[in-house]
Each structure stands twice: as C-alpha cells, then as structure tokens.
Input
Amino acid sequence: MTTKPLRIGLIGTGFMGRAHSNAYRRVDQFFDSDHRIELRAVCARTEDAVREFAGRWGFDSHETDWRRLVERDDIDAVDICTPNDSHLEIAVAAAANGKMVLCEKPLARTAAEGAQMVAAVEQAGVPNMVWYNYRRTPAVTLARQLIDEERLGRIYHYRAQFLQDWTIAEDLPQGGAGLWRLDAAAAGSGVTGDLLAHCIDTALWLNGSIQEVSAMTETFVKQRHHNLTGKVEPVGIDDACAFLARFQNGSLGTFESTRYARGHKALYTFEINGEHASIAWDLHDLHRLQYFDHRDDSRTRGWRSIHVTDSDMPYMDKWWVPGLQIGYEHTFVHQVADFLQGLDRGETVAPTFRDAQETQQVCEAVLESAKDRSWHAVAQDR
Ligand SMILES: NC(=O)c1ccc[n+]([C@@H]2O[C@H](COP(=O)([O-])OP(=O)(O)OC[C@H]3O[C@@H](n4cnc5c(N)ncnc54)[C@H](O)[C@@H]3O)[C@@H](O)[C@H]2O)c1
Output
C-alpha cells in the first residue's frame, strides 16, 4: 500500500490547537489509512510561543501570519483553531488557495458568515469538516447505532444541557486571550454558539432536523472590563440560554446552557425518550451509555449503565482491551481517522461545513426568538 501525505497547516495554538495536534500525532499509530499525516506548519501570532509549540508537537515549521500559511504550496489541509471571528476569513482564503479546510466549531459567528464559508469550500471543491467532536465519543456513536436500529421506536423527547460555572465572578474581564468567549465581537454569541452548538449538532445527528424554537437568554453581568480596549463595556453575549424545540420527527426538545451553574464544569448531558426505550449520556462519565428498554422482563427491567469499552463498540477495537476506557482527547483522534479514511474512499465526512450550517441556523433562530420572545422557524435554505 502506498501512502499519500496529508500535509497539515494548523492555525491557533490554544486549547484546540493542542487537542488537534495530539490527535494528528496519535492517529497513524492506532488507525489505518492510505493517508499519512505530516505536521508541516503551525501558526500563532507570537514568534517565541509558536516556535516552542512547533518544537513540542513536532511541526516542521512555523508562521506568525495565517495568510502566509494558507498560501504555502507545501500545505494540503488548513486546520482553523482560532476564535470564531477569524473562521470566515481564514476558511475563505484557504479554500481560494485550494486547501482542504478543517474548522473548529461553531462554524462562524452568524448564519450569514456560515453561508459564505459553505459557498467558499463548495465552489473550490475542497474536502471540509467541522470539529463537532462529541459525535465521535464511542458512547455517543453507540447511541446513534441503537437509534438507527430503531430500538427506541418513535421518539417523544430530546433533552440536553451544557452547564458550566466559570464566568460567575463579576470582576472577570471580557476580551483578549483566554476571555474572547465573553466578547460578542469575537465569539458571535455566548453559550448559544459556544456550548449549545455542541448540543444542537449532536441532536441533529441523533434525532434529525429542528423545525422551530422558542428561547430565552439572559446576560447576568451587564458590563465587564474589556481587556483589549481597557474600558468597562457592555457585555453582548448570552450568559445563559434555554430553548424549546420541535423536531421534524414530531418529538419535543428542551435545551439549556449556562456558565452560571455553580458546581458544574462541563456537564454536557442528553437524554432521549422513545416509545420502547430511552438512552442517556453524560460527558463527565463519557465512556458510559445509559439504556433503559421497556421490553425487558419486568422483574429485571431497569436502567443499564453500558461500559463502552468492548471491541465490538464504535472505535474501541483500535484501542486497548475490554474494560479499559478512553477519554476526551480520543474523540479528536477518531475525527481525524474518519477524515483520512473518507479521503481514501473519496467521500465527504460529516459534519461538513454544510452540515454545521444547520446548527448555525438553529442558533440563529434561538437568538432571534430570545430577542423578540416568539417562536421562530429554523431556516431550511441550506
Ligand atoms: N470542539 C470543541 O469541543 C471545542 C472546544 C474548545 C474550543 N473550540 C473552538 O475552537 C476555537 C478555538 O478555541 P480555543 O479554546 O482553542 O481558544 P484559545 O483561546 O485557547 O486558543 C485560540 C488560539 O488562537 C490564536 N489566535 C487568535 N487569533 C489568531 C490569529 N489571527 N492568527 C493566529 N492565531 C490566532 C491564539 O493566539 C490562541 O493560540 C473556537 O472556535 C472554539 O469555539 C471547540
């Protein structure tokens, strides 16, 4: 088998820059593909820091201007791990240079930006993918398999939460390194685009399209010191958001996210209730899937906690022996592996930019609904 190189140019060296670099370094050792990752270049704005990052993670070279990186002839795929306000510009430039584009979520700050990004990659005809990595948690992939096998029957309810507590302090500033998520200009929105986008992506994947939503949002701390301007400025993001949803399959959804739930760090949970069975998942215990089947014998019927580690479970034949669990970072390894195997077959791998645009449109309807306090249809013009 001859292997083809896939030369990566990664932009952004923060949380996701590290998660993706780790995945690129691991994938060839655990998964098979005709393509082999080469870490060709990494980009961040500070010379010393990006040089150190390149050395630590094994990139051949570094850049301090992403525009130079996307023009380089020795890069096949550009990976965008920067804050949301730069996704559009980088993705459009990368596609115009004929690069494959992998982009962190949310695809963009708004659906209008997202639409431009979808057009750019599709006009250029380049493979593209968005890092909604939770789909590739083995327990979540198993949930999808159980739903595809119609074990749940008709679905009645989809319930998701993503709870954190890190922005409660009133003296926490907004803007700049580490705190761009509190700055609406950089992030686009607050918990809706940052956290609910994950819940929405998983929900669309497991339970199909959402038709309409009714939402409320709140900004609990109205103004914060801005690290970039040096002034106290109004806070433009939603600190918390809850919304109701009607899915196309007739089921009802409730979604909630906040960064003000004291005691919760990254509590992403979902539960799906069907006619015959229910499933539930919890990021804090990500290697388990809870399953209840009403068709079981009534004397032994109950919620099962499935330890998703056996080799016949999604992705698990590539890792250790049954009983030994894997974690958060592996979801990114799985996403790279699927992308490479998609290239082998000449097939697109979900979620593409177009798939992620559906999440963008749900987020948009949610934010509009919260603004005018009425139900909003989700745009279907993807
Ligand atoms: N898939 C997930 O679960 C997940 C988790 C966290 C973040 N994200 C997404 O990943 C993206 C990055 O988030 P993060 O948590 O890694 O942020 P971060 O603040 O940790 O890192 C951002 C990086 O981008 C760099 N950067 C900013 N502007 C740049 C520019 N113009 N040129 C080059 N580098 C630039 C910063 O220096 C920093 O290295 C966001 O879109 C975020 O929503 C996704």
In short: The longest strand covers residues 35-43. Residues 11-17, 43-45, 66, 81-84, 86, 104-105, 131, 133, 178, 194 surround nicotinamide-adenine-dinucleotide (CB under 6 Å). The domain at 4-133 is CATH 3.40.50.720 (Rossmann fold).
